[in-house]
User: What shape does this take?
Amino acid sequence: MQTASIPRRKPALDSQFPFFSLIEEPTPVDALVRLGKTLGHSSLFVKREDQTHSLYGGNKVRNLEFIFGDALQRGAKEVITVAPFGSNFSAALAAQAQRAGLKVKFSNFITQRNAQIDQHYRFTEAQGVSSRNFDGMVLGSSRAIVDAFTQVGMGQVRGQKPYFILPGGSSVLGAMGHANALLEAHDQFEMSGQSFPDFIIVGAGTCGTHAGLLAGVRLLGLRTRVIGIRCAEPIVCNRYRVASLASKVLGALGARTNITAREVDLVDLPANRYAVPSPFSFEAMEIFNENEKLLLDTTYTSKVGNYLIKNLAEQYRGRKVLYWHTFSPAAMTGTYIKEKLTA
Assistant: This one.
């Protein structure tokens, strides 16, 4: 099993932040030569976070390594969270919790339904979790939050030591997993004798991945800019949240520096609502699949792909770019790339 880069670099943190290894090997960094040529760019790379685990991978597995370590140290037997119906995080948590011997309880709120979301929900349920579903963004999410905390309280009364996980796993510990991944990527470029990229481009939803990468860049003193592509509503995904979470990660790691909202790069695109495909989602999915066999999703990565298609050649000309690929297709079946989605 893989060891964490953060405790290896800062041994004093090993006991402070227990780590439960879920990722056997560092995820690859590959040059996207064919896609780069198609998009008119000569220095495009990808961090293959889709390969964090074969059962169900994606970026959310990174969130769980420090979270599970903390939960197990506290004697938890079950974890409880609030999640959008059929989310990537739900699938990752359901699949990986079994490896840690943890039971999972979901309080889901339903805001969107499409083929991808429904398949993720079926995959999640197949892992033997407990779920309660509530309709609506506002009312549904409010009821889901109340339900989750009610379950936490009941579990405490029964002495079960339930552990609450913030939505998307985007807590300090969750974001720390992505700072850890940034250090891993830096080691990979260094070992290959290459300079680290000028830009990292990643989808942003509950902000944990974006914040963790930004904290990792600051921790290493790099000049790399982390460009987040907003894939959720501003109330959830905004510069202040990214800056706050990244600063808390840095503080937890003993770094005497903060990140301000003004330093956060967050790009808006058309149709940036959570789980709503952009007008060009399917075009991006086809281009990435045809050129590199990279499967994108409609919630996050197709929006990042659309941004790269439109901006890579001109805006990033002559600069090294690392696309941070977060989607795990493991839960999907059939030719979903061509499948028409319904709202």
Q: What stands out?
A: Residues 60-168 form a domain with the Rossmann fold fold (CATH 3.40.50.1100).
